[in-house]
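Internal ticket - ligand job 210, fe (ii) ion:
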Amino acid sequence: MNGLGESSAEQMLSHANVQRFPSSRLDLFIRRDFLDVRQCAQLIELIESNHRPSTIADYNGDDAFRTSSTCDLSTDQPVVAELAGALSRLSGIDPVYAEPLQGQRYEVGQEFKAHTDYFEPGSTDFDKYCSVAGQRTWTFMIYLNAVEAGGATRFRVIDKVIQPETGKLIAWNNRRPDGTPNAATLHHAMKVRKGFKYVITQWYRERPWA
Ligand SMILES: O=C(O)CCC(=O)C(=O)O
Ligand SMILES: [Fe+2]
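stdout (structure tokens):
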């Protein structure tokens, strides 16, 4: 299955410096130095200038489930437009399938507990989030800084912990080869213990976003 809003292992590995995490459970890729120090600093500045409490799709009764802040990034900013273009070239996905780019900001003690990025089929909010653009397909995430302590992303099912590094991108397919949601993508943005953590999130959809 490789629809228009989807990347593929072949596409990802056609780029120099992209590494595949060896797992039969999940397609996960890592690209160090995807963004340079200047781009990361500019994006952090944008996030700092404008952020709101992060939200979750299906409220599960835990007010501490996602405690970070979110910044909606506009491609009117040159560095954001540059990033959107670079992500589209890497993923091979037309930007019309992309959700608006976001920055996520974590202070000491903040986290996003174990979750998947796809919307749970059959959940109360499924139609609200998926009726127009469909399900999320791939996630691309970039760490904008090396966190002083804590803040790693833990994929519990495949037992992989990824440490934030300035400019490092990770990407994964949220679905199995047959197109069903892949529960092995479960991941936890662990608590920051010292300093701040900034990441960029880019989610792609099955159908055009707008
Ligand atoms: O910050 C991280 O390490 C992960 C963020 C994340 O999983 C998300 O925003 O969906
Ligand atoms: Fe996530």
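Auto-summary: The chain has one domain: 9-205. Residues 9-205 form a domain with the Jelly Rolls fold (CATH 2.60.120.620).
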